[in-house]
Amino acid sequence: MSAQIWPPISHEQLLKEEEDSLAAELEWLLEDLQAALASLKSGLEECLALLNVQEPGTTLALSTLRSETVKGFVTRVGTRVVKGDISLRLSSLAPPRGQASYPLRISSPLPLPQLSALLNLLNQALDIIDISTWTGDPRNGSFISGQLRLLAETIDESKAVMKGGEDVVGGKWWEDDFAGDETIFTPPLPPTLSTHLTLTPTSLLLTIRTLTPSPSQSTPNPSSTPTGSSSSATMTGLSLRTRLTQILAPMPAPTHDEADRLFVYRGQDVRVREKVRVESQDPSLMAVGAKLSAVGHAVEGWRVKLGIVMGEEVDAVWS
After folding, report:
1. pTM for this one?
2. Which of 34, 49, 92, 310 could form a disulfide with 274 if both were Cys (CB 3.0 to 4.6 A apart)?
3. Mean per-residue pLDDT, 204-231
4. What phi and psi, each to the nearest 5 degrees, are found at residue 100?
5. If you average pLDDT over every residue of the chain, what do you get?
6. Which stretches does DSSP call E strand in the chain?
7. What's residue 27's pLDDT?
């Protein structure tokens, strides 16, 4: 089945009519896109509001299921944990004399670099929308197409930061800037204990690790040990009771995913003896994850529409 134009027109006039039609459709699409950009901006601003929780903050329970290995809570305000009271019962961590568990209290604000990076990316996305609306030419298809591609990449990066992992900001626990800060935790963390707070798409994740010094002849793992690091250092600052516990206590074979890795933590070569992960679902993070996915889908949809009208291929990723 074919369609014909009546009355017939020349091929050159047909091409001109097609160009005029595409130009009119592009103009209409760009005008409609401006209203969509306002809606996308509103969604991103809601994400920022959810993450920038003000006083008194969001209090989240952090406790292991069906055990008292980890039991407590933390309070998040914005990009920091301002309060926390956690009790640890680990076979490889001796509690203070006269106590049944090891107390871990957050007495000074604890920064969350991953959350700060997420807020920075969301602000960048808002800047891209403002430039697309006010600074640049909103009727220039090529300009708007480039801005939408940049916006899509920024949102994808934001979702990657929320997923976490060692490749994101704050993902490497052995590089925590606050590890040696004795003012954050009460009592101060011993060299054999690491606490690491990160984000997942729906939760705040606390990972507790007890550490043991690594023999000087151990071969460093290049993925976790910086080049040129010293492996001759030993743990210092431990009480006699803690030293005896580490020497005399039986050490079962580690069963976690970091058992074969060597890390440099606070200037010492260490291995992870025991590892416990506790997640606490954060309603704000859950809402942000859903809104970011919706905004990402909307941006990809507009990229596809614009690409069809402009005759461009769009490498849209629907995730």
Report:
1. 0.80
2. 92
3. 63
4. -85, -15
5. 83
6. 58-61, 70-77, 80-88, 102-106, 110-111, 185-186, 193-199, 203-213, 263-265, 268-281
7. 86
Long-range residue pairs from 76-81, CB within 8 A, at least 24 positions apart, any chain: 76/112, 76/204, 76/282, 77/53, 78/51, 78/52, 78/53, 78/54, 79/51, 79/111, 79/112, 79/115, 79/116, 79/119, 80/109, 80/110, 80/111, 80/112, 81/106, 81/109, 81/110, 81/112, 81/197
State percent of the chain over pLDDT 90: 48
Tracing tokens 């309603």 back to the chain, one arrives at 283
Phi, psi (deg, nearest 5) at residue 228: 85, 5
Q: Is 207 exposed, middle or buried (0-12, 13-18, 19+ CB in 10 A)?
A: middle
Segment 266-289 mean pLDDT: 92
CA atoms within 13 A on the CB side of 170: 26
Return the H-helix or E-strand segment holding 50: helix 11-51
**Hey, what's the torsion of the CAs at 94, 70, 199, 58, to 10 degrees?**
-120
Asked, as a colleague might, if the bond just before 222 is cis with ω within 30 of 0, I would say no
Instruction: Give the Å distances, CA to CA, from 245 to 90, 95, 240, 251, 274.
Output: 12, 11, 9, 10, 14
- DSSP assignment letter at 216: T
**Minimum mean pLDDT among 133-142, 167-176, 212-221, 285-294: which range?**
212-221
Which residues, 6+ apart, have CB-to-CB distance to 274 below 8 Å? 90, 91, 92, 93, 208, 209, 210, 254, 256
Q: H or E element: which one contains 161?
A: helix 141-163
Q: Which residues contact residue 226 at a Cβ distance below 8 angstroms, ignoring those fewer than 6 apart?
A: 264
User: Residues 75-92: what's their mean pLDDT?
Assistant: 93
First and final CA of the chain: distance in angstroms?
A: 38
At 253 the pLDDT is 57
Note the pLDDT of residue 242.
Answer: 56
